[in-house]
Specification:
By secondary structure, the chain is of the alpha/beta class. The chain has 10 helices and 7 strands. A 7-stranded mixed sheet has the order 3-2-1-4-5-7-6, with helices on both faces. It binds S-adenosylmethionine.
């Protein structure tokens, strides 16, 4: 990826408009970790966009966008530096963040970004999305992101999950209670179970999945990316069998199963 030059006045201005820096373009200290997350996420969005046709507009959907920091910075990179035809659809059910995002886009005179205030699952797309992604979408919003991507047949789906309340609250009787009696281990195991089960469902729908740390854990403890590409390799024929095995051991399943009707 070409370097994003942090010194450009234009990017400094974007930072100040979206609220990641003050009026003089100085990044707020408390936002620096967020910036690292954004740049590292952008690297992976860029790898995906690079593999998509330059001849047409590429549609990216940012689920649970919050104030759309990632979408604004990515939009700057793709349109001004990579010179791609790009459209962003940003979704969040919180009216405050959507109003703030719309105001920022207006101030920046951006007309290729749409902001939708709704539950991710309710949104119907006019154009098929190429990439559906989320960063720290709370709990089942990560499941909704993946479900939307699968149901819309997106080429790429990327998520970095956040809290996993739904799975954590359900996981009670299982053979590893001597491990999960320690809160910190329970937290980590729940993260692994929820994301692993999601990857198996993605594989069952024809996606090749990679799971990796997309940014250092010093920037966020929730730093694991699930990256899925449709038709990106040999299908895992055992995915549903493996999914059922995990379900039998832990007696939980992420909401993704309901959303794509792959219920046990
Ligand atoms: C932790 S914030 C992350 C925001 C942004 N992606 C970021 O990384 O800065 C989670 C966001 O998810 C939104 N959210 C949670 N569940 C949602 C749902 N089902 N539909 C739409 N938005 C949702 C919340 O309103 C909140 O803005």
């Amino acid at each position: 990826m070409k370097n994003i030059n942090l010194e450009t006045n234009e990017l400094e201005y974007i930072f100040s408009v979206i609220g990641l820096s003050n009026k003089n373009g100085k990044n707020y200290r408390q936002r620096l970790k967020k910036n690292e997350q954004i740049y590292n996420y952008l690297l992976h969005l860029n790898k995906a966009v690079d593999r998509l046709s330059r001849k047409r507009e590429i549609v990216l959907v940012d689920c649970a966008c919050g104030k759309s920091y990632l979408a604004f910075i990515a939009n700057y990179y793709f349109t001004k530096i990579a010179r791609r035809k790009i459209k962003f659809v940003c979704i969040d059910y919180d009216e405050y963040v959507i109003t703030a995002s719309r105001a920022a886009a207006e101030k920046l005179k951006l007309n290729n970004m749409e902001f939708i205030c709704d539950d991710i699952f309710n949104v119907k797309f006019q154009v098929k999305p190429d990439i559906v992604y989320s960063l720290h979408a709370c709990d089942t919003a990560t499941d909704m992101t993946i479900a939307k991507g699968i149901l819309e047949d997106a080429k790429y789906i990327m998520t970095v999950s956040c809290c996993q309340h739904t799975v954590r609250n359900k996981i009670k009787k299982h053979p590893l209670t001597s491990i999960t009696k320690h809160g910190v281990y329970k937290e980590r195991l729940v993260d692994m179970i929820a994301d692993s089960m999601r990857t198996l469902l993605l594989e069952s729908k024809g996606y090749k999945v990679n799971v990796f740390e997309y940014v250092s854990s010093s920037k966020t403890p929730k730093n694991v990316m699930v990256r899925a590409v449709k038709g990106g390799g040999l299908a895992n024929k055992n995915s549903i069998k493996d999914y059922k095995k995990l379900h039998n051991i832990f007696n939980v399943q992420p909401k993704l199963g309901d959303y794509i009707r792959e219920n046990l």
